[in-house]
Amino acid sequence: MRQQFATLPNLLSLLRLALVPVFLIQLISRHFEIAILVLALASLTDYLDGYFARKWNQVTRLGQLLDPAADRLYIFSTLVGLAIAGIIPVWLTLVIIGRDLMLAIVYPVLATHGYGPLPVHYLGKVATFSLLYAFPLLLMAEIWEAVAWLLPLAWAFALWGVGLYWWAGYVYVRQAIQVVRNDRENIPVI
Prior knowledge:
By secondary structure, this protein is mostly helical. The protein has two domains: about 1-65; about 85-190, no CATH class. Helix content is about 80%, strand content about 0%. It is built from seven helices and no strands. It has helices at about 1-5, 10-30, 30-55, 60-85, 90-110, 120-145, 150-185. The model has no long low-confidence stretch (mean pLDDT about 85).
């Protein structure tokens, strides 16, 4: 287990997780430029952990759990911070968090049948990509007048990301239902 933990990709994921509170504090404190720098660093570690994991064949189960957890935490902290700063409407925050709450119900159901989280679906990856692009663009359009033209693009990414996020959630729930059904069908009758 120690060898699985101490890989460069996992250490980069842990760094990204450690930067979540730093990012949120900077965002809530309206230190937007610092928040953008922290977010850029986190994005770089996200890219690098995946790149090195594949290049050096260091894909681990821990890394497969850390990476989406860090993505979820950045999405959540960005939503909360942007809503508190008045940059996005509260409804957007609630719609995205609502999807994650729906999926939070699925995890214990899978666990009771002996399964961990299901693999991330490509729709979820595209949705996360869209949202993780939308938020910095929304923030940049808010603080720098010279790039205010980014606002429509930022909202396009945000709305597209929300739609895909919910679609991926639906696919994930369907997969979980199928796993549970298959599990029940394979129970021996005594």
